Write a sequence for this structure.
């Protein structure tokens, strides 16, 4: 029924079928990756995403489980295309995690596979060009750096955070370059700690990409290359239109949000109603920091995409079209567009939350959420553990915030209390909603939580968090949520207060307490 | 009296309809369908159905001596869970953890929602208990019995008589839970659900949720069972559990009841397919708002963790996947593309053709395409319930929609092309969902047979199969009531689970054997099969696989490795295997109905009667479709598409390029005609 339709404009039936098919291919890649990956981060915490791209490198469909992965691979693909030019060969796979070139932070490694119409190389190099790209990004359990798990709370340079892969050719014409990648992962001041696991996960990513390539080629066989490529464009146009509609309801605004370390994120949103375009200008944001709170440009882009996606009340595809009506301005060298060798590991998990809240603040949409992921780590030579902890969500016009829930750029699961106590020498003393920590107003914010972990062995514990100093703001007359706090109750009952980021030596009988921030309220409280 | 001379009834009490299959004293199968709720006519649909089938007058008592057994599946508990209408429950949990179930695993259901809406909790209040075990079973703090008694009395006085006891590490160290249960009993609680009895497995949150569900629903089930028992005194009553086995009424609990309805369908599909010689099937049960699918490749597939209506359940249930698309999925044009669902017209107002002002749905598209012929549907629509499906409103609504699409896009289409475009999308969405589920389990769907049953499935089965590369479809003569029939084919099963969490080594074998033996705490009859299984996983992971127990460790390891390779495509030989838990399943075969062989009475060269020929739009053109009546078909009849086979309760569409044949057991087998 689809024969002989013209390709100058989208056919509404085919548009819907193709939209769903592209999305489904990305999801299939995700299933293959989740099934074949060995590391718990990918298999059980679902910290990965897969995507397919047009021949020009623009995003066609992706399937993230965690918003911080949203659309953030596009820049990696573009960078790779610029780097390799016309030297791509069938059977090649590249690796990248470069935060100054489309990456987010080092543990998120992207495998990119160019897809060719024919798997056989015709004639000399450059005989044919890729017709699509497929890519998968997975959070590696460890990629080297000064601390196990590669999430150091106090890194100051990228080298301390681990190994940087910049468009590294992992598979060349079908040959897995095991020696070369092992060399890179080993030959570093702070080498990777579990290379077999890295290799296993890379292979799973390659398998996921292969699935995507196979499915795309099946589509080409069924519908023809021109149709498949043209509809990739139409699907992007479709998403663009949905975002333009959402922009039409927005107003200009600006916002400055200070972080606990004194740095500030400044954003100005200008809406061009006539052309249904938005300009988002981060000029005025603090310069690159000595700490690791710098957020690579890809993180800011993901945050912007997330916010605009939440403004569309429909399941639109997430692709390059969503960003077309949006101009993002981030001055180079500021903390949202850092340059080598800035440390960036907290940008992905902390600064990203601040960017989202600042955007909602500028748009007047909703009050701040807890604005942190409360990254809590502990370990010694036998055990390593990492978790992020929920808090309160912000209120908006017409709705209350929610207590004790993952907000905005993360949605990762927490380990069950019984599993935690069985696998690690710790005891969970309590885990409960932190009453009265929410912001008030016509609509109140959500409450944070209180989590108390008692240590049964000597271990090093770390907290990487925000909003211990600056409270999550309320909006339109609502009050702010309570700041979070972290402290240690020593065995002798003495208390040590901790900063937003801290590393502490824990002894048996000591308790680490984390109180997470509440969300801000919205609107003036109505008096009786 | 010989059991062969008494009645058996298999009943599926669903949300809208109650289906009843009766086996007469003469071993004949008769089927019956009635509304589940019809208070003007009768109080209980199952009881009324039994009366109807036995021919008992309204003022006469049911002669229960003539009934051998009644087997039921019921959605009574499922509906109470969905509508949050269970009993009032108090949660008893360790101090410091009153919010543990509310916080759960801290994730939100929709990552792009500005307002985060979490499922509401089933318990009304919480009492924190001063008591604590550590993970190794050391008692850090004994139960403060005085305080517990005082707190429970206070709660009991507010009118709450159902409690859920969930204590840390209670799955393994059970003393604290038992102590608290004893106090609850002495205070007067009538429903006491104890986590280690409900689900003796690690994970506080999901075991806790399961225990709360049990406390919330069991009292409702008890009252329902009592009501039925009261009307059928001295009649053995059995219920279908979520795991596909039957339980005696006395043992039927809330935690096992959630999938009671759909489980019957899976058992029916599996048992009947096997009898027809198909050993790899995908079940396909399409209803109004959703479609249930499941795989079968030699044994029932169960999963330990599931989430139903916002409750995390940790009990073995049949692996049934629900796709949010059905005959009632609404069709819209958003200005750029056609959309099918996710909104549904449900049963009220239902599709536009139901004459209740509904919007266009998948069912209406089939009316437009001539695949649903109103003259063969029950005459129950309209204000007085005496009109047929409204074909005219469907036509006029599709004409309006077509005009809108033409005006927006400039594409000149006919209304039937528009309807068939929507169907293409609905079918693709459904096929994608099916493919995704099979990919997750590592199956190649093209090797499977689609077993189609329920209301609307046979209207789209050929199209879905085409899309999936499936070339065979099986439709049982009782496909319209297959859930009820399946309940009649099920075995009595009871499954005991026990947490282990130890490394798989030769040293653990004696302990494992005695553990398995200890789980069989009842006398077992000679006709009972005992199936021992272990749930194994690689150390440090959560991906558990269910493996047959064997005294030879090497065999279990090999089976795990094979299964892991099939499902995940890789193995990790360097990692130790951990026994997460063991299960013992007791299976008692029931006396089930035989599938009768049907004799052909018409000569072989005489084809079945064509009732009429109607226009049907398929594969982008109109066809003359011949309409046949299902009950006229006989073994060896072969019908080529395009054709329509009508039954009392459903319509089977044979697309062009497909043909239908009837086998000796009166099964309909649809096959793709190869070119």
């Amino acid at each position: 029924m689809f024969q002989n339709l013209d390709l100058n404009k989208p056919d509404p039936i085919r548009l819907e079928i193709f939209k769903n098919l592209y999305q489904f291919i990305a999801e299939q890649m995700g299933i293959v990756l989740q099934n074949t990956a060995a590391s718990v981060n990918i298999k059980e915490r679902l910290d990965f995403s897969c995507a397919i791209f047009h021949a020009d490198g623009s995003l066609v469909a992706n399937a993230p489980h965690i918003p911080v992965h949203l659309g953030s691979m596009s820049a990696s693909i573009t960078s790779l295309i610029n780097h390799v030019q016309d030297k791509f060969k069938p059977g090649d796979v590249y690796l990248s995690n470069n935060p100054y070139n489309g990456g987010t932070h080092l543990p998120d490694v992207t495998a990119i596979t160019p897809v060719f119409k024919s798997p056989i190389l015709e004639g000399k190099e450059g005989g044919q060009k890729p017709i699509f790209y497929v890519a998968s990004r997975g959070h590696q359990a460890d990629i080297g750096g000064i601390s196990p798990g590669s999430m150091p709370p106090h890194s100051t340079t990228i080298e301390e955070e681990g190994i940087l892969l910049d468009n590294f050719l992992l598979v060349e014409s079908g040959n897995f370059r095991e020696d070369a990648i092992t060399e890179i992962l080993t030959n570093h001041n702070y080498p990777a700690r579990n290379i077999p696991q890295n290799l296993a996960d890379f292979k799973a990513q390659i398998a996921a990409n292969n699935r995507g390539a196979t499915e795309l080629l099946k589509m080409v066989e069924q519908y023809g290359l021109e149709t498949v490529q043209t509809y990739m464009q139409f699907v992007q146009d479709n998403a663009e239109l949905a975002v333009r509609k959402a922009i039409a309801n927005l107003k200009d605004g600006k916002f400055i949000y200070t972080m606990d370390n004194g740095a500030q994120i400044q954003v100005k949103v200008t809406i061009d109603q006539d052309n249904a375009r938005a300009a988002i200008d981060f000029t005025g944001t603090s310069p690159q920091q000595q700490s690791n709170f710098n957020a690579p440009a890809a993180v800011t882009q993901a945050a912007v995409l997330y916010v605009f996606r939440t403004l569309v009340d429909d399941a639109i595809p997430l692709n390059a079209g969503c960003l077309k009506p949006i101009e993002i301005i981030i001055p180079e060298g500021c903390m949202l567009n850092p340059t080598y060798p800035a440390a960036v590991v907290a940008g992905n998990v902390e600064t990203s939350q601040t960017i989202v809240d600042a955007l909602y603040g500028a748009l007047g949409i909703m009050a701040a959420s807890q604005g942190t992921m409360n990254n809590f780590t502990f370990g010694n030579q036998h055990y390593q553990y990492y978790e992020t902890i929920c808090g309160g969500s912000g209120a908006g016009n017409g709705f209350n915030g929610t207590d004790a829930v993952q907000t905005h750029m993360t949605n990762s699961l927490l380990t069950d209390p019984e599993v935690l106590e069985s696998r690690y020498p710790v005891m969970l003393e309590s885990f409960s909603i932190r009453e009265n920590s929410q912001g008030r107003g016509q609509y109140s914010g959500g409450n944070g939580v209180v989590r108390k972990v008692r240590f049964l062995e000597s271990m090093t514990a770390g907290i990487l968090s925000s909003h211990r100093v600056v409270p999550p703001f309320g909006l339109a007359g609502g009050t702010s949520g309570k700041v979070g706090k972290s402290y240690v109750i020593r065995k002798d009952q003495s208390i040590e207060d901790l900063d937003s980021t801290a590393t502490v030596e824990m002894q048996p009988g000591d308790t680490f307490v984390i109180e997470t921030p509440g969300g801000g309220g919205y609107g003036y409280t109505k008096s009786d | 009296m010989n059991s062969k001379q008494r009645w058996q009834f298999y009943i599926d009490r669903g949300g809208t309809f109650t289906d009843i299959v009766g086996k007469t004293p003469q071993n004949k199968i008769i089927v019956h369908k009635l509304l589940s709720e019809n208070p003007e006519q009768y109080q209980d649909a199952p009881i009324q159905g039994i009366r109807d089938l036995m021919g008992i007058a309204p003022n006469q008592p049911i002669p229960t001596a003539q009934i051998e057994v009644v087997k039921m599946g019921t959605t009574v508990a499922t509906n109470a869970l969905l509508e949050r209408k269970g009993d009032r429950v108090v949660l008893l949990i360790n101090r410091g953890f009153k919010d543990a179930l509310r916080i759960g695993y801290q994730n939100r259901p929709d990552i792009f929602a500005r307002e985060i809406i979490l499922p509401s909790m089933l318990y009304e209040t919480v009492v924190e208990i001063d008591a604590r075990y550590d993970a190794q079973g050391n008692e850090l703090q004994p139960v403060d019995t005085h305080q517990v008694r005082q707190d429970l009395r206070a709660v009991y006085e507010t009118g709450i008589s159902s409690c859920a006891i969930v204590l840390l590490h209670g799955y393994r160290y059970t003393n604290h839970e038992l102590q608290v249960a004893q106090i609850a009993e002495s205070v007067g609680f009538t429903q006491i659900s104890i986590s280690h009895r409900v689900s003796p497995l690690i994970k506080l949150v999901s075991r806790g949720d399961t225990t709360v569900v049990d406390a919330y629903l069991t009292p409702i089930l008890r009252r329902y069972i009592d009501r039925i028992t009261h009307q059928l005194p001295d009649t053995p009553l059995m219920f279908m559990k979520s795991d596909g086995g039957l339980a005696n009424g006395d043992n039927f609990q809330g935690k096992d009841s959630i999938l009671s309805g759909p489980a019957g369908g899976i058992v029916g599909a599996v048992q009947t397919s096997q009898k027809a010689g198909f050993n790899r099937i995908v079940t396909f049960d399409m209803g109004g708002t959703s479609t249930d699918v499941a795989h079968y490749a030699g044994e029932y597939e169960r999963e330990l963790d599931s989430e139903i209506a916002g409750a995390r359940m940790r009990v073995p249930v049949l692996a049934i996947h629900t796709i949010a698309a059905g005959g009632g999925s609404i069709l819209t044009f958003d200005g750029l593309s056609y959309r099918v669902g996710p909104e549904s017209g449900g049963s009220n107002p239902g599709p536009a053709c139901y004459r209740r002002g509904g919007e266009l749905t998948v069912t209406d598209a089939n009316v437009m395409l001539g695949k649903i012929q109103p003259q063969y549907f029950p005459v129950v629509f309209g204000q007085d319930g005496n009109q047929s499906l409204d074909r005219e409103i469907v036509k006029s609504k599709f004409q309006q929609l077509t005009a809108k699409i033409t005006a927006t896009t400039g594409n000149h289409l006919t209304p039937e092309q528009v309807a068939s475009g929507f169907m293409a999308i609905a079918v693709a969405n459904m096929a994608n969902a099916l493919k995704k589920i099979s990919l997750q389990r590592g199956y190649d769907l093209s090797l499977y047979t689609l077993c189609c049953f329920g209301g609307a499935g046979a209207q789209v089965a050929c199209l879905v199969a085409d899309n999936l590369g499936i070339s065979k479809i099986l439709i049982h003569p009782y496909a319209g009531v297959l859930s009820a029939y399946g309940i009649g084919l099920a075995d009595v099963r009871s499954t005991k689970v026990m947490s282990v969490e130890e490394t798989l080594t030769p040293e653990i074998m004696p302990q494992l054997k005695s553990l398995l033996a200890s789980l069989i705490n009842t006398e077992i009859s000679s006709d009972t099969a005992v199936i021992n299984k272990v749930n194994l996983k690689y150390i440090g992971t959560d991906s558990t696989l269910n493996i047959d127990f064997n005294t030879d460790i090497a065999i279990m390891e090999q089976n795990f490795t094979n299964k892991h390779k099939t499902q995940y495509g890789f193995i990790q030989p360097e990692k130790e295997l951990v026994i997460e838990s063991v299960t013992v399943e007791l299976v008692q075969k029931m006396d089930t109905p035989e599938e009768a062989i049907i004799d052909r009475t018409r000569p072989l060269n005489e084809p079945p009667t064509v009732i009429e020929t109607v226009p049907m739009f398929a594969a982008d053109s109109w066809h003359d479709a011949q309409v046949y009546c299902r009950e006229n078909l006989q073994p060896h009849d072969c019908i080529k598409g395009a054709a329509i086979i009508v039954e009392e309760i459903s319509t089977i569409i044979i697309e062009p390029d497909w043909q239908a044949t009837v086998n000796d057991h009166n099964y309909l087998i649809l096959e793709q005609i190869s070119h």
User: Anything to note?
Assistant: Chain B touches chain A through 67 residues (CB under 8 Å). The first strand of chain B starts at residue 7 and ends at 13. Chain B has a mean pLDDT of 90. Residues 362 and 423 of chain B are 7 Å apart (CA to CA).
